[in-house]
Amino acid sequence: MKRPKRWHILVFLLPALLVYTAVMILPLIETLRLSLFNTVDGQPTFVGLANFQVLFGDERWAHDFWNALKNNVIFFIIHMCVQNPIGVALAAMLSIPKLRFVTFYRTAIFLPTLLSFVIVGFIWKLILSPIWGVAPGMLDLVGLKSMFAPWLGKPGSALIAVSLISVWQYVGIPMMLIYAALLNIPDEVIEAAECDGVTGWSQFWKIKLPLILPAIGIISILTFVGNFNAFDLVYTVQGALAGPDGSTDILGTLLYRTFFGFQLQLGDRSMGATIATVMFLIILAGVSLYLFVIQRRMRRYQF
Amino acid sequence: MSQARHSIFRTGFVHIALIAYTLISLFPVFLTIINSFKDRNAIFRAPLTVPTPQTFSLIGYQTVLGQGDFVTYFQNSFIVTIVAIALVLLFGAMAAFALSEYRFRGNTLMGLYLAIGIMIPIRLGTVAILQGMVAANLVNTLTALILVYTAQGLPLAVFILSEFMRTVSDDLKNAGRIDGLSEYSIFFRLVLPLIRPAMATVAVFTMIPIWNDLWFPLILAPAEATKTVTLGSQIFIGQFVTNWNAVLAALSLAILPVLVLYVIFSRQLIRGITAGAVK
The domain A53-297: what is its CATH number? Predict the structure, then answer.
């Protein structure tokens, strides 16, 4: 007996599928396609990989592109080395059994994650501003006033300062995910470790850390995708030119300037699509590496 | 005895570390809010003190409310966020129901297709999205933003909701079928009420990036009439850089709705993150 056509399945799927395909997937594919075209004599013409050659090798483009890519990598490394260890440390402290005020700490530390980049960017700009003097004033309290410098204004330190602001904002996410993973470790495992005399520090390193590695993997890939797609914070703190002297320019701000135009620079759709494609390939490579290599090798423990 | 003392010592140290980090998290927000209520002199002379009757001033708020069109911005943000969340929840739940309830050819493939958007950011398609919006005559409309945010929110919503729908008992649905309910009434009248907690979690997750987004308002809807609060305060602050009262007041006003929502939803949000996230 042939079953009747089940139209309701289509009805349930269709709205989501339509919006998602029309507004997300097709534009993504179209952007990838546009990166292979450029305007020649006013006509869009297929140019193969010429746009990429220009981006990687042409004097006018290559300097900006490699600079943005380098800055983006540094931006990511700072997040991995500062944000995620602090997140793990905070989560480890919060998960100590019978600790009081945990809800309060958790709620307070997660708050900055919810604020928009505009708020976060401007608040820190004000705090670090030499005009207002909050930062030098506070350093003065601990006798370190001489260390103060207008960090956001100096090419040597601006990228680090912006990265640390972003770390300040996002540390709540690794904290929460690791905290959840630590709570999921069954008591029997911990009790067994204690019976064997494994406590305190060595318990954390030898028992808990291996068990939360999958969660650390997830936060790493989330950080990766978020960082190589970042734009807002740099834009609010340093403007579209990502100054001083391009020292905080990352791929997101480069994409914005290229595709949308800024001040005297005219918007260039093909080169914008080319940069977006490079970002897409970087993110795709990171996600594939995670899904097919790291996640498969990682041992999972079933409780 | 020494064990106990050691433990008290350790707990004390942990509390000191956590309090220190809590201060780092809250200090910038606190500093902004207290200074927004002070006059200009006090902001510069004593930035770290709370406003006193002598230094109290609302001049910043008067400037913001008089100059910037913040009421419109708030209204735009509310419309965009609420409509997008409603669409994400409705369409997302429907798709999740189809994927988790029925076996049909291409089911897994469809699930994977919808999951691409969890990892690949929609921003990378901006060039073509703008092109499409220009062609559809939707630039500088809230509709453009709503469409983009709906597409952006759907993948994660479908993923989370279908996990939850698998836990709804089959007996209940089959009982409904025997009673002659159509598939649509089973979805709307039996399943939806049962997954309400999951819907709340998805709503909170969807809301934050939409409310805070700067990229799409800047590119798709920068006109005065369609500015969202995030873009509006960005531009307002850019223009009033030297008017510290106004800047601090604008920042405080932008923080306020997030704070209120966080106080209301923080348990929901934290439960959502700690429950389903690590899989």
Answer: 1.10.3720.10
